[in-house]
């Protein structure tokens, strides 16, 4: 790390030394003992501008306090049937670790429907997975490897991506905004697999709008990405939809489905949240109800990307409708 980087870290640290309670308490939940690595993440997110990184981090800490994010891992989504419905429609899971010890998260972008619960439940579920990753998974990985492991790998399965994705853009923008502002630089690399033609068209529109730092993290792999991913992880950690070409879909596979509520990751996560709820309020019955979180306004970049995606998907929709209408026209030969 260069001299300029070290100076920026020390300067940001000095600014944070004046942070008072309860911001300091929630900051401990953010850095989990890896303070320098956390400061670097926020500095990277603001192109090493110390003043901007400081504002971003303090805003994040205020957001956490105002929305009691420190308590979200004690707020299970109940009943279990509702949580199961969320898992069936928000396809995400952890399939294992890379050879460097980074957790591998799998996301079924194309087949996630987000239609079985309110937006608040999906946001709650997403933040809980973020917090479980940052407060349980990553500290454990760091301890096992004897070095700081503060980022993960994400494998995005585009199987089943359709024009109906248009209806998901608003929710995905909310989730993306929360991540960008409060969990910056937590993903080392995004691997995109099983990409249909519609993704390729959308990617051409979105790619130029992304910051160079983000673009460099995204790799679009051919087919299911199996051969490329096996260079960085063992087959046991490979998401089920990457095990072989033509495996069908993110939802069903002969291999273990890491999106399933029965998968060990989700069982451990859900049991952990239920246990935390009993520790926090041992005499209180667990109440049904979503955990409402204030969503910050999306950055200009996020808004532009969302609008561009909507425009591109609408073009596809119009093109499909035109194609279907012309298919029904019979042309008589003279």
Protein topology:
Blueprint: H1 3-16, H2 23-31, H3 35-45, H4 50-66, H5 80-89, E1 92-97, E2 103-108, H6 119-145, E3 152-157, H7 169-182, E4 187-193, H8 197-206, H9 212-215, E5 218-220, H10 226-229, H11 264-280, H12 300-327
Please sum up the structure shown.
The protein is α/β, with parallel strands linked by helices.
List keywords for this structure.
alpha/beta, 5-stranded mixed β-sheet, disordered C terminus, globular, 334 residues, 5 strands
What does this structure look like?
The chain has 12 helices and 5 strands. The protein has helices spanning about 5-15, 25-30, 35-45, 50-65, 80-90, 120-145, 170-180, 195-205, 210-215, 225-230, 265-280, 300-325; strands at about 90-95, 105-110, 150-155, 185-195, 220. The protein has a 5-stranded mixed sheet with strand order 1-2-3-4-5, with helices on one face. Strand 3, helix 7 (about 170-180) and strand 4 form a beta-alpha-beta unit. Mean pLDDT is about 85; it is low at about 330-334.
Globular, elongated, flat, extended or rod-shaped: what is the shape? globular
Radius of gyration: 21 Å
H-E string: HHHHHEEHEHEHHEHHH
Provide the helix percentage.
Answer: 40-55%
Number of helices: 12
Strand numbers in spatial order across the main sheet:
1-2-3-4-5
Q: Main β-sheet, in a few words?
A: 5 strands, mixed
The count of β-strands is 5
* Mean pLDDT score: 87
Structural class: alpha/beta
The amount of beta strand, in percent, is 5-15%
Uncertain segments are: 328-334
**What is the terminal-to-terminal distance?**
76 Å
